[in-house]
Write a structure and sequence with these properties.
Blueprint: E1 2-5, E2 7-9, E3 12-14, E4 40-45, E5 49-54, E6 59-64, H1 67-113, E7 122-124, E8 127-131, H2 138-147, E9 151-152, H3 158-168, E10 173-178, E11 186-187, E12 199-200, E13 205-209, E14 212-216, E15 223-229
Parallel strand pairs: 10-15, 12-14
Antiparallel strand pairs: 1-6, 2-3, 4-5, 5-6, 7-8, 8-15, 9-15, 10-11, 10-13, 13-14
Keywords: Lectin, Membrane, Transmembrane, Transmembrane helix
Subcellular location: Cell membrane
GO molecular function: carbohydrate binding
Length: about 230
Amino acid sequence: MIKIPFACLNKSIYVCLLLYPDSYLHEPPRSRHLCKSKREFILDSSPDHTLHLDAASGLTTFTMISQELRDGSHNKWLRRTSCNWKMLCLLLCILIIIMLIAILVPIFSKSSLTMKCSGEWIGVREKCFYFSDDTRDWTASKNFCSSQGSELAQIDTKEDMEFLKKHIGTFMHWIGLSRKQGESWKWTNGTVFNGWFEINGNGFFAFLSADGVYSSRGFVDIKWICSKPRF
C-alpha cells in the first residue's frame, strides 16, 4: 500500500501516481479530477489496483492486487459458482424424481393389483363373472368354478344382482349358496349368507332366474355362474 499527497485546486483534484511498478503498467491509471465534500473518494479501480483519496489526511491510498491474489479469488469465485449450480441441478433432479415416484407408484401399484377379466369373463366393478354355455348339476358346477380359481357366483350387492339378472335372460343359473338340513345358507367359501335377498323354495341349493333366487335339490342340470375378485 502506497500513500501519496494530493492537491485540490479550483474544486478539482489531480492525482499523479509517483510509483507504479512495471509489472502492472499495462496502461496508465485513469486519473480523475474530483472535488467532493466526502472524506474519501475512490478515484480509480481496476482488476490490478484501487485508488482512494482521503480528504482529512490529504493522502491518496493506492492498493495494488497481485496477479496470484486476483486469479485465486477469481478461481475461487468460479469454483463456488460451479458448485452452487451443481447443487441446484442435483436438488432439482431429486425433486423431479420424487414427483415422478409420487405420480407413478400409485398407478403401477393399482395396475399390479388389478387382474383383468380375460377370455369369456365379464368384469363388473370389483368382480369377474363367467356365464356357462354348458349345463351341469350344482356340485359339478361348483367343481368347474373351483378348477378356474373361482367360486360359484357370490352376490353381495344389488348392482351385481341386477347385472346378473339382465345377463342370464330366461335361463336358470346355479349360484354359490347351499345349506344343510336345519342350518343357515352359506356361500361356497364358508361365509354365512346375511339374508339380504329372499331365497324361494325348500331346496338346499340356490339358483338365479330373471325374477329372483330359488332353491332345489341340486340334481337338475342347468347353467351356472362363476365369480372371482378382480383384485
